[in-house]
Amino acid sequence: xxxxxxxxxxxxxxxxxxxxxxxxxxxxxxxxxxxxxxxxxxxxxxxxxxxxxxxxxxxxxxxxxxxxxxxxxxxxxxxxxxxxxxxxxxxxxxxxxxxxxxxxxxxxxxxxxxxxxxxxxxxxxxxxxxxxxxxxxxxxxxxxxxxxxxxxxxxxxxxxxxxxxxxxxxxxxxxxxxxxxxxxxxxxxxxxxxxxxxxxxxxxxxxxxxxxxxxxxxxxxxxxxxxxxx
Length: 230
Hints:
This protein has 230 residues and is mainly beta. Helix content is 0%, strand content 41%. It has no helices and 20 strands.
């Protein structure tokens, strides 16, 4: 099945409907609004429903689907619920769809960005057009001149780093010389080397980290086996 045919699914993790799954229709890479009332997602070309591609919004129950922008993907809500970041460092107004492009000339190939807890800054990984290096960066959300800080350069690949809700850490992955993608964390402001998130490695592919609301845990994708080999 092609990516254009994917659907957005919701699963209940608690309450009387626990483990039940609801299909909310065509879409990819969904993300909840901070108030849990809406879902942003993107639709790709080639979907079987003829839906226009781009960034879309819908209510949490799948109703009132509407297109916000005719381009972009991998949306991320700002914590204040007012804006959405998408790939290419595009910032969308969540009400009007008005578009602002941040650092497009310097970093044309970014997969997208994650917001700081105060909705004032963004963290992203992009390939610097001038040097050709992959860089982990922080920048003001309006792209203000002089606000860009490069935290790390290296074999970072295409990814969206994740800023912790307490504002203290940014987690991301590095593909190391042995071919393993390992998760690391780095503070957004204080200088310092990144710290590996595990003292030992399991699995070769570890990516797509997301913080818990209390900043104490991280969920991520991995090809590792569960404890006990299951």
